[in-house]
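Q: Convert this sequence to structure tokens.
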Amino acid sequence: MREEEIIAALRSNAPFDGLPDISVESIRVETGPPDLTITLNVAGRKVVLYGELKNNCSPLRVEQIAPWLRQFKKNRPDAAVALICPMLSPASQRICIDNDVDFIDLAGNVSIRIPSNLYVYRVGRKPAAGTGAEVLRDPFSGRASRILRVLLEKPRPWRIVEIADELLSASNQAFGQFDFNVSIASVSKTLKSLTEQLLVRRQDSTILVSEPKKLLLAWADKYRERYKWRMRSSFKLRNPFGDDLADV
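A:
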């Protein structure tokens, strides 16, 4: 999504839709950081908000920029300083909150805090279709999940080629003539996604799982999310042989 499209969404008040008494009154595009100076109308009061526009707001990118935004906000105690993105994941939102950084995304997730002046907090909104947010490979599905097995079953520093070789060896041993191999390109894309989500760390050319439990729990959450629709669509039929084991 281009910056012009993000600004247009802000002008239309899209992030604040459904929040009473809050609207965007004006936006001024700046030549240097921050990118925007926004004036909010909050129940008749003018509130200044400085906005930093980013297309990629993965946890890794947010972790990198959060210290600068936190310092910028300290120098402007009477204003809000917000990271503005097409979409902020719950993990990215948590990093912002932990670092006292305001945030706004186009799905309507908002956290703005000005001590003794304004506090707005709304999360849990899913991204709208067509936000243009960068889409990373899902590392928890299909063949990509086999990479997670290697990282968790054999915890040590890995290189991309080593992971690909390990997968090829495991595939040959388990499936023989069937091709369950994962290409180096797929390994690289999966590791990029895991790195952006702060589930693995890069040290030079090596990959390390610094928090295996965090990675395993994230995988479990995705697994439950993938199959919960089956529970919603299940139904119960009467057993013609009886209602309990004794009757049957």
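The beta strands are 22-29, 36-42, 45-53, 80-85, 102-105, 110-114, 118-122, 201-203, 206-208.
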